[in-house]
User: What shape does this take?
Amino acid sequence: MATKKTQTKDPKAQALRSQSCLNPRPEAVTDPLFTGSDFFDPRDLVQVKYEMLRRVEVDGQPISRSASAFGLSRPTFYQAQAALEHGGLPALLPKKPGPRRAHKLSAQIVRFLEQLLDSDPSLRSVELGERVRERFGIEVHPRSIERALARQKKKTSVTCPATSSSNHFAADYEALRGSVLDRERSGGHFDLVILLREGLAAWMAHADARSVTNARATSSERSTAAPILSYDLRADMVVVLASMVMAAAEQGCT
Assistant: This one.
């Protein structure tokens, strides 16, 4: 029997699908955070990937165990890890399909190869190809590796893309996450409603739009008052917060 979260007419499922962020296998997510929670939604592929990485980086869970608990593969874990390190939380958003490249070496893989050579300059292209296969799950010809590294060396003043504007999303999400898990904290209610109704990608889009608006205002023009919510948003927020309180009470009784 289809649950409420898997109904095709569910507005959040439609929002996630429109953003290409709808997890095709939400039933494969078995991590405890995603069972019985409105905040942690197994349908939100971006949130699933971030929480999978967090289990390893913060909680120290083994990679294979974490990937399995979140219904994803080890290569997917490594790809998500490289994306998060390179471009912050927005880098976990699915990329729109484009023209197929002549080689499979993305910027993340080239950076991975450079790190390998920095630690061991004696590695040959064949060995580098094996490392790429183990980490990313793809086969790359040694000549492709040699050409990619040669192109990288020819570039002058090469720097990683500035990610300061995108790095804040992870910190903001952690703050919102903490306000949900820690009942003693408060704030972030408007952001919470956006995330619950439309998903993590939409939450980032709203946050980005709001930051642009705030950047245009001077410090004297900025209001410290909480955002005014519509009646529908207030109602949703009340339901969500009430369910959280009830869940906490039930856990306390067990």
The CA atoms of residues 142 and 237 lie 55 Å apart. The chain has eleven helices and no strands.
